[in-house]
Amino acid sequence: MNKIRNQKLILFILTLFLVASFSVTYAFWASSVQGASSIGSGVLEVGLWVPTGYVGVTEDGAGDMITLNEIGSGSYPLSGKYIQMSDINWNNQAFTPIGLNSAGVFSGEYHGNGFSISNININLTHTNTGTSSYAGLFYRNSGLISRVSLINAAITLSKSSTGISGDDLYLGGIAGQNTGSIVYSYTTGTVSGTMTRPYTASNGNSIFTYVFAGGIAGSNSGNIHNSYSQATINSVADASSDKNNSSVYAYGYAGGLVGRNESAGSVLNTYATGTVTAEAVADNTGNRKQQAYAYSYAGGLVGHNNSGTVSYSFATGTVQARTQTTTSGTAVRYFGYINGLGTSISSYRLSTQSISGFIITPGANGTSVQNTADSTVVSTTQANLRLESYITSNLLWDANDWIFDTTYYPRLKRNKY
């Protein structure tokens, strides 16, 4: 009898120990999720269950989960907390950016949780006048987006407007516009935006067209840290007027990672390898025309750094900036900003500049830049950029966050490939 009693006691003690261990493990894991929310770091280990306060997202939304396109609808607000619990393959079907239907900003949390989102197809044509348009996995973001592995996305946004200004394009792989934090995320695929503004309404107005396109975000005034893009980027801004006394301005911004990094924007520990093309076309054919201006901003990493912070990052893709005008006798200004930090170049009429191998080296505000097409220098540098010793020593990246392999550029740990 005593032997049986002792066995039951031992079993009871072991049960208590296992329950306590599970509780401690769960509490630690859950607290790390909450910690990510409070500090905005986005650090979230892969979890096998949905913690309290979060909604699980899967491909089919079975059980108590939801699908990706349910975020921002019904009981699942843009301010909510979401965690991905399976790989999601959209199979190249049409996808509506999260937040577009409500023209809202995602202000909650989204954690990729070690899973991938693949073959998203966003192909939008807008005609609304006086309101800017956005496209990306998220329409706009002011919250925390972490560990998103966006693979083979096809994002296209086109628009034609007869207004004067104010309805421009912002598009990126993760978000059209970012004022929050995007961390530990990457994109592959294509991002392409085209805006045309044929103005014929009345004389004496200035016409403005802007397009911002980037692998992670079209514009950034928040944080984009520990992320990268291999996406191909295209931006086309086309403005024209046949009215008298009207000036025409076209601005095309394209960056491998970010189209334009604003003064409050922070880009840290990032890179981009995709081909980048920015194009601006300005046409003024009025009888008493003013000037037409075409500005093209192209950069391997950032199309234009508008006094923001860009540091410990690099880019290796081919960059092309084009400008064009058909206006006879009117001066055209062309600016080719290499990685948003290069020297401006002025010319007339039709001009194109193409160059590859741009590297951003460490600098307090990303001001130390190596812009070179020298094949020997580029080849050596690109080899170094695959080495853990070079990256951790010169760019101060944390080896706990990155996988290093001489076959690839650095890849993120705890993300899906």
How would you describe what is shown here?
With 417 residues, the protein is mostly beta strands. It has three helices and 31 strands. It has an 18-stranded mixed β-sheet that branches. Strands 7-10-14-18-22 form a five-stranded parallel β-sheet, with no helix packed on it. The chain is globular and about 70 Å long. The N and C termini lie far apart (58 Å).
* Fraction of residues in β-strands: 35-45%
Q: What average pLDDT do the residues reach?
A: 79
Helix residue percentage: 10-25%
Quickly count the domains.
2
Low-pLDDT stretches are 16-42, 329-378
Cα end-to-end separation: 58 Å
Label the overall shape: globular
How do you describe this structure in short?
With 417 residues, the protein is mostly beta strands. 13% of the residues lie in helices and 39% in strands.
Question: Which features characterize this protein?
Answer:
18-stranded mixed beta sheet; 417 residues; 2 domains; 39% strand; 31 strands; 5-stranded parallel beta sheet; mainly beta
How do the strands and helices of this protein lay out in sequence?
Elements: H1 2-39, E1 55-57, E2 81-84, E3 88-89, E4 109-111, E5 116-118, E6 121-126, E7 133-135, E8 144-146, E9 149-160, E10 169-172, E11 175-178, E12 181-183, E13 186-199, E14 206-214, E15 217-220, E16 223-229, E17 232-241, E18 247-255, E19 258-261, E20 266-272, E21 276-284, E22 292-299, E23 302-305, E24 309-311, E25 314-315, E26 319-325, E27 351-355, E28 358-360, E29 369-371, H2 375-384, H3 388-395, E30 402-403, E31 411-412
Parallel strand pairs: 1-2, 2-4, 3-5, 4-8, 5-9, 6-9, 7-10, 8-12, 9-13, 10-14, 11-15, 12-16, 13-16, 13-17, 14-18, 15-19, 16-20, 17-21, 18-22, 19-23, 20-24, 20-25, 21-26
Antiparallel strand pairs: 26-27, 28-29, 30-31
